[in-house]
Write a structure and sequence with these properties.
The chain is of the alpha+beta class. It is built from five helices and 13 strands. The chain folds into two domains: 124 residues, Transcriptional Co-activator pc4, Chain A; 96 residues, no CATH class. Helix 1 packs antiparallel against helix 2. The structure holds zinc ion.
Length: 234
């Protein structure tokens, strides 16, 4: 059984691109992409894509990003983007005698032909799956950025682990950038000489200072918050 056949003919290379969807087992479909060199003695190269792979190929065509897929028999289909055109290539590397170069065929599509190919791929493989939006997280992130802006002067401060009233680094707080930070974050009578105290909490240190009760939890939250900091401005 097959549903949907699409062909495109490249006048410059005399290569035809064909797409076909086939049910290979009950409930299992493949999108078969064939490039056929229509010159005399021409080759015919075929790659079988799962619907997921075909969707990723469609995404790459739509987004202008490169795509390469190697099927189980070691044949490759690739998408490359040039100026105003998209190149689809198939390289056949299966059943190669020693020393023989792999066969390769390409077509170049431009303008409306790219749009038609994309539409056909979407029809055969299914609609694009968008990642679910997490509005609750976005809202909470903006609210916290506003609060931290008020408290620290920086909407996305770097975080550190702190030692509050326990003996262990079980708390978290924004990195201290207070005016007298260097002077205050020093243990003057440390054995062997004064020592910088990065985990201590002094009058210069900004809020919020949060006790998690766990060194592991504190370390994780600091990594999480700092990953968010590096992710960009809220
Ligand atoms: Zn401080």
């Amino acid at each position: 059984m097959s549903d949907g056949t699409y062909t495109y003919y490249d006048d410059d290379t005399a290569v035809e691109l064909a797409l076909l969807r086939k049910e290979v087992m009950p409930g299992h479909h493949r999108v078969i992409l064939t490039l056929h060199d229509l010159s005399i003695g021409g080759e015919r190269l075929t790659v079988w894509l799962t619907l997921g792979d075909a969707r990723r190929m469609a995404d790459a065509i739509e987004d202008g990003t490169p795509f390469e897929f190697v099927d189980p028999s070691d044949d490759v289909v690739s998408v490359e983007h040039g100026t105003l055109q998209t190149k689809i290539s198939v390289i056949c590397r299966s059943f190669l005698p020693d020393g023989e170069e792999p066969s390769r065929l390409s077509v170049r599509l431009a303008g409306v032909d790219v749009v038609l190919l994309l539409a056909e791929l979407r029809t055969l493989s299914g609609r694009r799956v968008a990642p679910p939006a997490n509005h609750a997280l976005d809202t909470a992130r903006v609210a916290v950025a506003d609060m931290l802006g008020e408290l620290t002067g920086n909407r996305r401060p770097k975080w550190r682990v702190i030692i509050t009233d326990s003996e262990s680094p079980t708390g978290i707080a924004p990195v201290c950038t207070g005016e007298r930070s260097d002077a205050l974050h020093t243990i003057p009578d440390f054995p062997g000489g004064p020592k910088r105290d990065d985990e201590g909490v002094y009058d210069c240190c900004p809020w919020p200072q949060i006790e998690t009760g766990s060194t592991v939890m504190a370390a994780y939250l600091v990594e999480l918050l700092n990953a968010d900091t590096e992710g960009g401005d809220a």
